[in-house]
């Protein structure tokens, strides 16, 4: 695999081959009825690989970013009607399947989804687009919306949230030790002038965090920017919402895989998938009670990680944690 940004249209797909391997048994079993959901289309790298690898399969690609969806659709145009793009937040995929028109959606409703992938977090393309405000190393407008046409911005959060709410999101979503102190600085500074650009926020964070702490643990603004991005895009709510939606949409023996890049995402995925793949029969009984058998089984051993070789070529693969399940064909009664 070529790990260069240019041949990958600005975003190198993490663990591309492994994602295809995890979904392959289901996609091959579905044959000509196989429909894959790429819930986080981005630059289309995973989808392109799926369409090349599984010549009978079709893909529904979902992205809330209209520019990303447009560019990926152009990239995938060579596949014709085997690819269908949907602009939506990924937890809206159930409505898209129910209401979509055309043979791909007809297959999805009739046979169920064969495979689904959710590559969570922000894409390299968005990080590299300075005007989006995701990156803390350049001065840019404090936007951070994955869909820049709707919703609140990071500036709105900084300029309107109470001290308690700001501290809460910085602590909860960013694991920021100095959440309260940063929130106090924000409230003081916004009285002078509303926040509009990231450079001013980075300067404030440097002032709020003690010098000794700034020298360790990476860039001091990293945790605050992560927390703001998650809040602006309601990323964890969307993740919690989509798990029951996509697992319900899977056909018999269908598979879904989640790629998480920070601990909050992975905790949500781990908890939900463990619940789906665990019997609810009280411990000690010799067999499952009716209606309590697990409807899914895990297809990963714990959380899989990228190889050292891949991380060396693509450092953004380092934090990924992969978990997946398969819908059982005939769960016990």
TrEMBL record:
Q: Please give the Gene Ontology molecular function terms for this protein.
A: rRNA (cytosine-N4-)-methyltransferase activity
Report the InterPro entries cross-referenced here.
RsmH, SAM-dep_MeTrfase_MraW_recog, SAM-dependent_MTases_sf
Reaction catalysed? cytidine(1402) in 16S rRNA + S-adenosyl-L-methionine = N(4)-methylcytidine(1402) in 16S rRNA + S-adenosyl-L-homocysteine + H(+)
Q: Which residues does the annotation say bind S-adenosyl-L-methionine?
A: 44-46, 63, 90, 119, 126
Q: Which UniProt keywords apply?
A: Cytoplasm, Methyltransferase, rRNA processing, S-adenosyl-L-methionine, Transferase
List all membrane-crossing ranges: none
Gene3D superfamilies with a match to the protein in the record: Putative methyltransferase TM0872, insert domain (1.10.150.170), Vaccinia Virus protein VP39 (3.40.50.150)
| Basic and acidic residues bias: start-end ranges | 323-333
Q: What is its EC number?
A: 2.1.1.199
List the SUPFAM superfamilies.
Putative methyltransferase TM0872, insert domain (SSF81799), S-adenosyl-L-methionine-dependent methyltransferases (SSF53335)
Region (Disordered): which ranges? 304-333
What subcellular locations does the record give?
Cytoplasm
Q: Name one GO cellular component term.
A: cytoplasm
| Biological processes annotated in GO | rRNA base methylation
UniProt similarity note: Belongs to the methyltransferase superfamily. RsmH family.
The record's function comment reads: Specifically methylates the N4 position of cytidine in position 1402 (C1402) of 16S rRNA.
* Protein name in UniProt: Ribosomal RNA small subunit methyltransferase H
Organism of derivation: Corynebacterium qintianiae
């Amino acid at each position: 695999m070529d790990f260069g940004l240019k041949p990958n249209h600005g975003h190198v797909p993490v663990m591309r081959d492994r994602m295809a391997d995890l979904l392959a048994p289901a996609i091959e079993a579905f044959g000509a009825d196989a429909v894959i959901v790429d819930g986080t289309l981005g630059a289309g790298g995973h989808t392109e690989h799926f369409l090349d690898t599984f010549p009978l399969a079709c893909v529904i690609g979902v992205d809330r970013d209209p520019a990303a969806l447009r560019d990926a659709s152009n990239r995938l145009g060579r596949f014709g009607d085997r690819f269908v793009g949907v602009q939506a937040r990924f937890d809206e995929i159930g409505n898209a399947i129910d209401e979509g028109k055309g043979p791909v959606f007809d297959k999805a409703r009739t046979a169920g989804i064969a495979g689904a992938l959710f590559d969570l977090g922000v894409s390299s393309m968005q990080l590299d687009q300075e005007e989006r405000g995701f990156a803390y190393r350049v001065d840019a407008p404090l936007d951070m919306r994955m869909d820049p046409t709707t919703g609140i911005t990071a500036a709105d959060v900084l300029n309107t949230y109470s001290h308690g709410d700001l501290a809460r999101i910085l602590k909860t979503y960013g694991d920021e030790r100095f959440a309260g102190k940063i929130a106090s600085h924000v409230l003081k500074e916004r009285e002078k002038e509303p926040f509009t650009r990231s450079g001013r926020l980075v300067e404030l964070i440097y002032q709020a965090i003690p010098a000794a702490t700034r020298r360790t643990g990476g860039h001091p603004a990293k945790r605050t920017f992560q927390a703001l991005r998650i809040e602006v895009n309601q990323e964890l709510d969307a993740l919690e919402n989509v798990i029951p939606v996509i697992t319900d949409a899977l056909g018999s023996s269908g598979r879904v895989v989640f790629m998480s890049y920070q601990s909050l995402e992975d905790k949500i995925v781990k908890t939900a998938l463990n619940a789906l793949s665990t019997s609810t029969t009280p411990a000690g009984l010799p067999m499952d009670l009716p209606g309590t058998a697990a409807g899914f089984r895990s297809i990963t051993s714990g959380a899989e990680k990228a190889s050292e070789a891949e991380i060396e070529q693509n450092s953004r693969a380092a934090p990924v944690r992969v978990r997946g399940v398969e819908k059982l064909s005939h769960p016990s009664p």
